[in-house]
């Protein structure tokens, strides 16, 4: 995909975090380095009910921070952010597309001169290089194969279901748990739930 980077540092972080996520019965969904922030996204395994909760994120943050402090794979100062995907999750890798087959996704192509730069449809197939979307063209359905390398951005689309019964629990359109901390050292870190369903732990450098 356009804009997808997999640096040696990111690959090393994956190697260190994957066993931790597995021990917590979670999947390592993504690792991104954005400037001085290293973002680790954890998710429940495909097909699982529910999502990653605050306690899991807080524990994962402590374990990942301890491992990164021990291995020291990131040069200089950085901020570690451990989070879970939102309801509308970003699709950046072939694996992301493959695990979301059957869902509606929205794609923006990198070619700004494309006649149809934005495409939305049901993801019906995906492999290491392409994604196939079933889109509505008037009254007909059309299967469109898109090269992953031509995609600028892609995300799942949350579809509102039936209205909840009176007294029942509604569905939030966007819910994302986040745990943050500044790295080096981690000895003073803390993780405690904050407002808006976020777990946060910070320290001054």
Task: Give the fraction of residues assigned to helices.
Answer: 10-25%
Q: What structural category do the secondary elements indicate? A: alpha+beta
Radius of gyration: 19 Å
**How far apart are the first and last residues' alpha carbons, in Å?**
35 Å
Contiguous uncertain segments of 5+ residues:
163-177, 182-205
Features:
single chain, 205 residues, alpha+beta, GMP Synthetase, Chain A, domain 3, SH3 type barrels, 2 domains, five-stranded antiparallel sheet, four-stranded mixed sheet, 3 helices, 20% helix, disordered C terminus
What does this structure look like?
Helix content is 20%, strand content 33%. It has 205 residues and is an alpha+beta fold. The strands form 3 sheets. It has a 5-stranded antiparallel sheet. A 4-stranded mixed sheet has the order 1-2-3-9, covered by helices on one side. The protein has a two-stranded antiparallel ribbon with strand order 10-11. It starts with 7 loop residues before the first helix and ends in a 5-residue tail after the last strand.
């Amino acid at each position: 995909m356009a804009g997808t980077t997999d640096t040696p540092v990111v690959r090393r972080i994956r190697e260190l975090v994957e066993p931790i996520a597995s021990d917590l019965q979670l999947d390592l969904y993504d690792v991104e380095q954005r400037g001085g922030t290293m973002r680790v996204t954890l998710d429940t395994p495909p097909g699982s009910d529910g999502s990653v909760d605050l306690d899991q994120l807080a524990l994962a943050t402590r374990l990942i921070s301890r491992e990164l402090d021990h291995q020291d794979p990131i040069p200089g100062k950085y901020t570690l952010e451990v989070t879970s995907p939102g309801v509308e999750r970003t699709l950046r890798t072939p694996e992301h597309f493959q695990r979301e087959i059957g869902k509606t996704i929205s794609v923006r192509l990198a070619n700004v001169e494309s006649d149809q730069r934005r495409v939305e449809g049901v993801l019906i197939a995906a492999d290491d290089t392409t994604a196939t979307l079933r889109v509505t063209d008037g009254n007909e359905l059309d299967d469109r194969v898109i090269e992953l390398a031509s995609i600028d951005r892609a995300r799942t689309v949350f579809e509102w279901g039936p209205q909840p019964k009176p007294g029942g629990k509604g569905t939030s359109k966007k819910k994302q748990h986040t745990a943050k901390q500044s790295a080096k050292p981690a000895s003073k870190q803390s993780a405690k739930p904050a407002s808006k369903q976020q777990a946060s732990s910070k320290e001054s450098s």
